[in-house]
Write a structure and sequence with these properties.
The protein is of the alpha+beta class and about 350 residues long. It contains 11 helices and 11 strands. The longest helix is centred in the C-terminal third of the chain and has 25 residues.
Length: about 350
């Protein structure tokens, strides 16, 4: 498959996850268990949702959120990244997944049990090798491998790549096939980080989890309001496994030893931290007149800005597999020969 561009000269999302998704669908449709599978969500239901016993709140988003919890969620649409009305792509594997904190915890506890389900059944073999081992070159942290700089300053993507991508997608962690691997080394470590003490991930603006093998604790956090800076306070929990001066294990054990009535009483004295945007940006019950007016203004801004922003950033500008300019069909490269492919699973729609 030809490269989008020479490495280090531009930025583009990989379509590797989409290809893996199509491969999964193709494989399971050929198996007795998957003869009735029509899209990738069916595969995930069989492989993930049912074994982990997740709720109906975990699913691939087809177009829009069924129950948005924020103003931005009202206007979020997968058509910005894919064409949900086109059945030819079989629900690409990077469509957003909606989930709940309880379901996320089921996944995290499976990771903490090193690939086993609650009843002891082995869900994923060789978990330590597959998920709890840093796969980056030399066993280094991602931050130690991100000293190179992208070339080109000719479009707004330069700002996106420089200010967002390089600061979010690298940090004091390695990567495995499950997610991030966390290690007991300084954040500026440039050498092999050694064995992983925890696995998990921290999304840019949505959720995070940590399965900590040293502390034997699972931690999940769901962010209520993306634009509210008062909600962005869980990085140390995920990356370092601590809350201020206390480890997650210490906090968890203390909470487990404390009567629920005492916890509820103490919680009343410590109201949830909220930034100035919280009431405006979230779906609040019985908003006052001022909040309604501000939400209307924000809604108008989102309605215009989200489609425009996605178009400017060209997030999927390069996502195609050698599309034939004349026939409009994807091509398959085999050695030095090029064949036209009519398989719907090989097509990637630009948006």
């Amino acid at each position: 498959m030809p490269l989008y561009f020479e490495p280090g000269t531009n930025f583009g999302y990989s379509i590797g996850h989409r290809i893996l998704g199509w491969m999964l669908l193709d494989y399971w449709q050929a198996q007795p268990e998957g003869r009735n599978f029509s899209n990738l969500n069916d595969v995930f239901r069989f492989l993930v949702y049912e074994p982990l016993d997740t709720s109906a709140g975990t699913y691939f988003i087809r177009d829009k959120f069924e129950q948005p919890h924020s103003i931005m969620g009202r206007f979020f649409s997968m058509k910005f990244f894919d064409k949900p009305d086109d059945d030819g792509d079989d629900d690409p594997a990077d469509l957003a997944i909606a989930s709940t904190g309880a379901d996320m915890m089921k996944l995290t506890m499976m990771a903490l049990r090193r690939g086993k389900l609650e009843d002891g059944t082995v869900y994923i073999n060789q978990w330590d090798e597959w998920a709890a081992t840093n796969k980056l070159p030399g066993g280094k942290l991602s931050s130690a491998l991100a000293h190179w700089h992208l070339e080109g300053h000719d479009d707004i993507n330069f700002l996106w790549r420089t200010l967002v991508t390089r600061t979010v997608n690298t940090g004091p962690f390695g990567w495995s096939y499950f997610g991030a691997t966390y290690h007991d080394v300084p954040a500026d470590c440039e050498e092999d980080a050694g064995r992983a003490v925890a696995v998990g991930w921290k999304g840019f603006s949505s959720c995070g989890c940590r399965a900590d093998y040293e502390q034997m604790v699972g931690f999940v956090v769901m962010q209520e309001c993306v634009p509210d800076p008062g909600n962005r306070n869980f990085a140390e929990c995920i990356h370092q496994g601590k809350v201020g001066d206390f480890t997650l294990g210490e906090v968890g054990r203390k909470l487990a030893e404390t009567d629920q009535g005492v916890i509820d009483s103490e919680r009343e004295g410590y109201p949830k931290k909220k930034g100035c945007c919280h009431e405006v940006m979230t779906e609040v019950p019985d908003p006052n007149c001022c909040i309604i007016i501000l939400q209307s203004i924000v809604s108008c801004a989102y309605r215009c800005a989200l489609p425009f922003g996605v178009k400017i950033l060209k997030m999927h500008k390069h996502e195609h597999i050698g599309v034939n300019k004349f026939l409009g069909q994807p091509v398959r490269v085999i050695g030095s020969d090029i064949e036209l492919s009519t398989s719907s699973h090989s097509q990637v729609n630009e948006s």
